[in-house]
Amino acid sequence: MKTNLLTTLSLLLLSVSLAFAGPGTIRGVIKDAKTKDALIGATIMIEGTQIGAAADVEGNFTLANVPVGTHKVIISFVSYKTKEIPNVRVESGNTTVIDTELDEEGTALQEVVVRGSRATNTEVAVISEIKQMKPIAVGISAQQIQKSQDRDAAAAIRRVPGVSIVDNRFVMIRGLGSRYNAVLINDVITPSSEVDTRAFSFDLVPSNIIDRMIVYKSGSAESPGDFAGGVIKIYTKRRPDANFTEAAATIGYRGNTTFQNVQTHDRSGLNFLGLWGKDQTLSSAFPKRSADFNALGSEDRAAFGNLFKNSWGLQSKTVNPDMRFALNLGRRFDIGNVNVSNITNINYSLTNQNSKIGLNLYQNGLVANDVFEKYTDSNYSRQARIGVLHNWTFRFSPVFNLEWKTLFNQLGNTETVVRDGQKVVDGYDVRNYSERFENRSIVTTQVSGDHKFGDLTKLNWITGFGYTGRWEPDWKRIGYQRTTGATSADGQLAPFQAIAPIDPNPINLGRFFSKLNERVLTLAVNGEHAFGNPTDREPNKIRFGIYGERKDRDYSAHFYGYTNVGNASSILQGNIGSIFTPQNVTGLDGGLTVKDGTKDLDSYNGINNYYAAYVSGDLNFGSKAILTLGFRGEYNNQQLHSTVVNEKKELVNNIVFIPLPSLNFTYKLSEKQNLRFAYSSTLNRAEFRELAPFSYFDFNLLADIRGNTALKTAKIQNIDAKWELYPTANELISVTAFYKHFKDPIETFLLPTGNGLAYTFINASAAKTYGVELEIRKGFEQSSSRFFQNLTVVANASLIKSSVDLGASVKGPDLSGATQDYDLTGITDKKRPMQNQSPYLVNAGLYYAEPNSGWQWNILYNVFGQRIFAVGNMNNPTVYEMPRNVVDLNISKKFRNNLEIRLGIQDLLNQNVRFSQDFNHDGKIGSDVTSKTASADQDVRKFKRGSYFTLTAAYTFGKRTIIP
């Protein structure tokens, strides 16, 4: 089927391409006639058309898709005489070269008004921006994202050196997890999209709204101090070059999922929009405290239980292909003397994922692979996503711009897990169900202004509001079991019976409700003043600014469990759809009732006030050396309260002021070659959830996660050195080395409990990580081969090593939530690699673009080294996520500059996602994971996601100016 699909599509695209004559290309170089310097930003237009370009940092330009024929080319630049070149002949499939020079005007200009804007979303623009930055940074442009056909920011950013992705949505930089990375959208810190950790879910940002992403690897006074891996700045599209309307539709096929039969559960309401019905929310009639609820009689509690909708039954369905739709609008117009522009993007997707997951737990005694429990999970999830970008720009004058940017994303995930297996040692067959719905919403809206005061001083300000919501309405879980091999009187296997514990627990039989609301108010002011002649290429500058943020979070959770009154075996042996009818939930003898398993600490309120001020300045030592010194001071007050009815209990009140110096030094070996050195002091704060002494059960991992009120702020010292070479405007070669030292790093810790897995967060004594990164971006424009002229090679690789020293003891919560000291002697390894740190990362890509025919294709490769997924101890070994080789293939074809057809194949190799346990505690996973020998390791989870095929049709209504 896959082969037929590829063959049919290829023949279709080939036949259409032959039906139209291919256009040609004009390229060249624009220079100053006297100095021979490149005229950066010179405008090149073809008379009578909207085809145009701007010269890059070396004066180069390219006009693609030029109609066959003879044209007049007009070249202009501020303070230079406009040049007209008539009779420029363009032939189908060929390139016409223009190398010319402009003469300066003889008279000075009295006033210059520039309405155009600098392109920021191209590969050339991003490379130029990174080259001119004082901190060490890497980036990816919208142009490269479009070539790769990455669907969201998570897929796109893994192309950046030193970056890898966890769970297809969380970013790791230089082997450091999400908690060590700061994320900003349009220069405003994003709220965390997760409950349990500090993390931003990058899959919430669709790729077609991104202008560029810049990842800062070294610190600076202007950047937030709370990072160690990197500061990721996502810039959304600002304003169009001309009016346009684009529409795109995508259909997707995933192996193991599409057209397969799956089990799912019902959610009322607008589920296809990621929303849920009111009948799934917790009634306000329920008593607030579990003690008050459980004091009621069993019949009264059963009456409350019947307020829950009996929606446990599962349905079989055949999975339809994935669907995605996008509408992009761009408008420019004038209101009086004000130039106004708008970009609006609307995205919708409905996607599916089905996996068969092998899950094993082991006894971890003297023999490897001694299975304690073994399961197979049938995991089906359906995601509905809505995304809206709405940006306005008002250009009042060349010295004042005003922008209003709004981003909304909503993601609803309906997940059904059917778990079959055995408790091998205990002698039970097991069948468990998890029926979960999760909604995540994020909104950011910002108003910003840019001001210029003469030629030397600039000022900008941003005020913003952010909101994050996360809801889990009515997460239902039930566990059945029977004695292995047991039969009934008729000789058939005995029926499964649901487990109804005396006291509610999160595993066996119950319903869980949670909601999170987080609001963030921000205000930032940044200024810059240049000294000396403003036309100097590198004038001395001083930068200064303030940043203020107020964050409020409310989190609440409730858990209710079913229990039997007397002997209710006949009810508990029923199927999942019939057990919880009102006839069974009576509270009478032989029936079921409900208990409240919620603890007072399962809800909390958090307030965080964060204020920062900074100043930095450039010192130029001749024309080659630039030193940037910076100082940032950050004040943070973090408060956490538990609110029970009218009683408010303070759990945390941390007030910290930390000075953060930074240094960035650049030495220009030549115009195309730099040496950089950077030092910065940064920090890492605990998040609300990591502090809150609330226990959360992860069904998929069979583990509890709880917070620790004793966490301290970690402090990090960062050193970076980089050599970079820019052979041409769109080429780059760089080598970066880095070293980081952590004091009191925050790490995950497996509590030494007797029952199951329970994780918390602790401060280790110290940690360090160091490594080297290589990046290459190479084109072949000077090649005599037309094929190589259109080819670009992009590759990056990282080698990283880290270690954590836990010390002799750590502070963490016990089962009641109270803090205690844990002596680590004999409990766990006191030294190990940092969690989520990969020893190596490799990304590579071949990009081919044929400007005359409109064909593009690329092949992309990604792999990471084994990394710690779950920290272990002596009784429960550490679990590693194993490497996967990922290959993506993308092909696209443009027709007459209006219609584009794209074929994408993601994860072509479809290798296993595999998590393995380090049974022999040697810090690595061996190749033999089935042996019983003491040196063997053990697979814990293993599954395949399935290769993913997408076919997209995108159409542009009307023409627009081509910007290279």
TrEMBL record:
Q: Name one GO cellular component term.
A: cell outer membrane
SUPFAM superfamilies xref list: Carboxypeptidase regulatory domain-like, Porins
Database matches in InterPro entries: Beta-barrel_TonB, Beta-barrel_TonB_sf, CarboxyPept-like_regulatory, Plug_dom, Plug_dom_sf
Residues of the signal peptide? 1-21
Keywords from the named record: Cell outer membrane, Membrane, Receptor, Signal, TonB box
Pfam families (alphabetical)? CarbopepD_reg_2 (PF13715), Plug (PF07715), TonB_dep_Rec_b-barrel (PF00593)
Report the locations given in the UniProt record: Cell outer membrane
TonB-dependent receptor-like beta-barrel domain: which residues? 446-908
Chain ranges of the TonB-dependent receptor plug domain: 136-231
So what family is this one in? Belongs to the TonB-dependent receptor family.
Q: What name does the UniProt record give this protein?
A: TonB-dependent receptor
Q: Which organism is it from?
A: Dyadobacter frigoris
UniProt lineage: Bacteria, Pseudomonadati, Bacteroidota, Cytophagia, Cytophagales
